[in-house]
Amino acid sequence: MPPWSSPLEIERLADSGADVDFAVPLAELSGLRSSRAGVAGSVRGHVRFSREQGVPVAELSLRGTVTLECQRCMRPMELPLDAVTRIALIASESEAGRAPADREPVLAVGGRISIGELVTEELLLMLPIVPLHAGSSECAPVPAAQARDSGSETHQPFARLGELLKR
Q1: More confident residue, 132 or 49
Q2: How far apart are CA 122 and CA 76, in angstroms?
Q3: Spatial distance between the Cα atoms of 136 and 132, rounded to a whole number of angstroms
Q4: pLDDT digits (tens, 9 = 90+) for 83-124
Q5: What is the band of 2 on the pLDDT scale with cuts at 50, 70, 90?
Q6: 40 partner at 20 to 30 Å CA-CA among 7, 22, 69, 98?
């Protein structure tokens, strides 16, 4: 089991002011795989745990490159990540009101959460729902000559439609 997937006790980490460095391969995050097809890459980061207003909080820093599949051209596209997020770790939904106003509450069921879960939650919020290359020039179609050379046959279902309509 990779260290980033082990559940951590948030109360103990917050009380000790723990700092945790991590590196996570995104293809191994099950929550990310199920919602994003073709996700690859890895992120490195740092989590600093503390306590604010009696609530365990974490400052999560993420850096890396995520490779997604462009939904326009179906080719890989890279998305650089460099983000810092401040979250409140709550053990139950009823504690959400206790979280500091400037912290987004994240549910840590039973007072435990893994680094992988924190990264997954943040990436689901940060990554585009429909990944697209920034410019249409990056999504240029494959030239016809190159497509013919690839050996794949193109199916043209309406090629004989004109002939059928003349009858």
Answers
A1: 49
A2: 21
A3: 9
A4: 999 999 998 888 888 888 889 899 998 889 999 999 988 988
A5: confident
A6: 7
